C-alpha cells in the first residue's frame, strides 16, 4: 500500500481495489477527500490528549486517523463489517482506539466516560436519531459532525424562520448549535448529490431530557400551518384554558409554534402542566 494520505483519491482507490470494495449507498458511504475540511472538523472539535472521542461511521478511517492522533482514547463504530479489516490496517500504528462492528443506533452510550466528544462524518440517513441519542445520553460535552446542509440548518435555526421547528428546539434545549461551514459535494468520493455542513453543538452541563416539554413541542408543530391554539385544541387541550394561557404568556391568539422561543415553550408547558387542562 502506498504512503499517500488516506484522504487522497489515489489512496482511497487503492484501498477499494485491494479489498474489492465499492462505496455502499445503504451505509451512506462518501469518503472525505478534502484535507481543508478534514482539518476544519478536527480543529472545531478542540480535542486534547485527555479527551475520549466517539466516532460513528468511520468508513475507511480518513477522519479516524486524525482523531487517533489527537485523542487519549477513541472508539469508532462501523456497521459495515467489510471495513473492519481495512480500519485495522489503516490505524495499525495507533494503540489508543477500539473498533466496534455494530449499528450505532443500538450502541449503549451510557458506557462512555462523562464529558466525551462525538466527532464524525455521520451517515446521513440516520444522522438525526444518532444526534438525539447523543444529546439525551448526558455523556458529551461537545458534538462536531458532518451532515446534510438542510439538516444542519434545522439544528441551528432561530424562531420565525422556515427551518425552525421541533428539532431546532430540542437541540437548543440541550446545547448551542452552530453551523460552522458548508461543504461541497466535491469534498467527497464518491460525490453525494447534496451539500453538507459541519455542525458543532456545545452541550449544557447536567441537562436532562424533558419528555413532557418535547411532547408539547411536537404537538405544537404537528400541523405547521395551523395556529398554536388550534394544534393544542386538536391535541385535546381545553380551548378556554389554552386561550387563557396564551394570553397570560403575552402571546397572540393567532401565534404559530414557529414564533415561540424555547423559553416560551418552557413557560407554556409549565402553565399547562400546573393547570391540568387536559
What does this entry look like structurally?
The protein has 278 residues and is an alpha/beta fold. The protein folds into two domains: 9-203, 3-Layer(aba) Sandwich (Rossmann fold); 211-275, Helicase, Ruva Protein, domain 3 (Orthogonal Bundle), CATH 1.10.8.100. 38% of the residues lie in helices and 19% in strands. It is built from eleven helices and nine strands. The chain has a seven-stranded mixed beta sheet with strand order 4-3-2-5-6-9-7, sandwiched between helices. It has a two-stranded antiparallel sheet with strand order 1-8. Helix 9 (228-234) runs antiparallel to helix 10 and helix 10 packs across helix 11 (262-275). The chain is elongated. The N and C termini lie far apart (66 Å). The mean pLDDT is 94.
CATH architecture annotation name of the largest domain: 3-Layer(aba) Sandwich
Stated plainly, the CATH topology of the largest domain is called Rossmann fold
Our measurement of the CA-to-CA distance between the termini, rounded to an integer number of angstroms, reads: 66 Å
Largest sheet: 7 strands, mixed
Poorly predicted segments: none
N-to-C series of helices and strands: HEHEHEHEEHEHHEEEHHHH
* Helix/strand class: alpha/beta
- The share of residues in extended strands comes to 15-25%
Shape: elongated
Q: Kindly report the average pLDDT value.
A: 94
Into how many domains do the coordinates divide?
2
CATH H-level name of the largest domain... which superfamily? Answer: Vaccinia Virus protein VP39
Question: If you compute it from the alpha carbons, what radius of gyration comes out, rounded to the nearest whole angstrom?
Answer: 21 Å
Number of strands: 9
- How much helix is in the residues? 25-40%
Spatial ordering of strands, largest sheet: 4-3-2-5-6-9-7
- Counting H and I runs of at least 4 residues, what is the number of helices? 11
Give the class-level CATH name of the largest domain.
Alpha Beta
Amino acid at each position: 500500500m502506498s504512503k499517500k494520505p488516506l484522504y487522497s483519491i489515489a489512496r482511497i482507490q487503492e484501498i477499494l481495489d485491494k479489498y474489492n470494495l465499492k462505496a455502499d449507498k445503504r451505509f451512506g458511504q462518501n469518503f472525505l477527500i478534502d484535507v481543508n475540511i478534514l482539518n476544519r472538523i478536527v480543529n472545531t472539535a478542540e480535542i486534547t490528549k485527555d479527551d475520549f472521542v466517539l466516532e460513528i461511521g468511520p468508513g475507511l478511517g480518513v477522519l479516524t486517523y486524525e482523531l487517533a492522533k489527537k485523542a487519549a482514547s477513541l472508539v469508532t463504530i462501523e456497521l459495515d463489517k467489510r471495513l473492519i479489516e481495512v480500519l485495522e490496517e489503516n490505524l495499525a500504528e495507533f494503540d489508543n482506539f477500539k473498533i466496534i462492528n455494530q449499528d450505532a443506533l443500538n450502541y449503549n452510550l451510557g458506557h462512555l466516560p462523562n464529558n466525551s466528544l462525538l466527532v464524525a462524518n455521520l451517515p446521513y440517513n440516520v444522522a438525526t436519531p444518532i444526534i438525539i441519542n447523543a444529546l439525551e445520553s448526558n455523556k458529551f460535552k461537545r458534538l462536531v459532525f458532518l451532515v446534510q446542509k438542510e439538516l444542519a440548518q434545522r439544528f441551528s435555526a432561530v424562531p420565525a424562520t422556515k427551518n425552525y421547528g421541533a428539532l431546532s428546539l430540542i437541540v437548543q434545549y440541550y446545547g448551542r448549535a452552530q453551523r460552522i461551514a458548508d461543504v461541497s459535494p466535491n469534498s467527497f468520493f464518491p460525490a453525494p448529490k447534496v451539500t453538507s455542513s459541519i455542525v458543532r453543538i456545545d452541550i449544557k452541563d447536567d441537562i436532562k431530557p424533558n419528555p413532557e416539554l418535547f411532547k408539547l413541542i411536537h404537538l405544537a408543530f404537528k400541523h405547521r400551518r395551523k395556529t398554536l391554539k388550534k394544534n393544542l385544541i386538536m391535541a385535546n387541550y381545553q380551548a378556554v384554558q389554552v386561550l387563557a394561557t396564551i394570553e397570560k404568556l403575552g402571546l397572540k391568539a393567532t401565534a404559530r409554534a414557529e414564533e415561540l422561543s424555547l423559553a416560551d415553550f418552557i413557560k407554556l408547558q409549565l402553565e399547562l402542566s400546573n393547570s391540568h387542562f387536559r
